[in-house]
Amino acid sequence: MLLLVGLGNPGGNYARNRHNVGFMAADGIVRRHSFGSWRSKFHGHVAEGTIDGEKILALKPETFMNLSGQAVAEAARFHKIAPDQVIVLHDDLDLAPGKVRVKKGGGAGGHNGLKSIDAHLGNDYWRVRLGIGHPGHRDLVTPWVLGDFAKADEIWLGPLLDAVATHFPMLVAGNENGFVTKLAQEVPAPKPPKSESMGGPDGV
């Protein structure tokens, strides 16, 4: 059995936040592959399904981001799931919007959800890093991640979530490179911001 974890914060106020893209991706996978209904368990919501013969437990922790590891560790212990059979979907400030990377192990990169999982489970699990871009200054990070996706983000966000759900079986099969390649082919780049000026004294 694999444990699929989407990270986010519970409640309608957070539903469209950039920090909740892990929840969004988990929801898409559950819908696309006809998992059972979400139900409350392990301090979160869980849904069960099968992809290409592999049983999968999807989990969305309801502990708020900073305590995500409590729910993940409880589910993993109960089902005797080893860390390397855990796949965590999460937002990543260090990747451009719509870019995706997959890796096993490594540091938390300042992500509080990953820090909590590391503390409870160790770090030998798989991470699917879903790029949300960086606001440009560290003082802007909190309002950025806890802010809603903009309307302009739909050009890449919808295709990203669709592609993650469609090609998730490749991850289940252990084909991480193929998964990342497919997403790179199918997710369009964000539109560059419109210039606020046609030029200044320096002609730029």
Automatic annotation (TrEMBL):
The active site is at H19 (proton acceptor). The record marks N9 as: Discriminates between blocked and unblocked aminoacyl-tRNA. Its EC number is 3.1.1.29. Pfam families: Pept_tRNA_hydro. One of its GO terms (cellular component) is cytoplasm. TRNA binds at Y14, F64, N66, N112. Keywords: Cytoplasm, Hydrolase, RNA-binding, tRNA-binding. One of its GO terms (molecular function) is tRNA binding. GO terms for biological process: protein quality control for misfolded or incompletely synthesized proteins; rescue of stalled ribosome. It catalyses: an N-acyl-L-alpha-aminoacyl-tRNA + H2O = an N-acyl-L-amino acid + a tRNA + H(+). Gene3D superfamilies: Peptidyl-tRNA hydrolase. It is found in: Cytoplasm. The keyword Cytoplasm applies. Its main location: cytoplasm. The record marks D91 as: Stabilizes the basic form of H active site to accept a proton. Monomer. Catalyzes the release of premature peptidyl moieties from peptidyl-tRNA molecules trapped in stalled 50S ribosomal subunits, and thus maintains levels of free tRNAs and 50S ribosomes. Hydrolyzes ribosome-free peptidyl-tRNAs (with 1 or more amino acids incorporated), which drop off the ribosome during protein synthesis, or as a result of ribosome stalling. Belongs to the PTH family. This is Peptidyl-tRNA hydrolase. It comes from Telmatospirillum siberiense. The gene is pth.
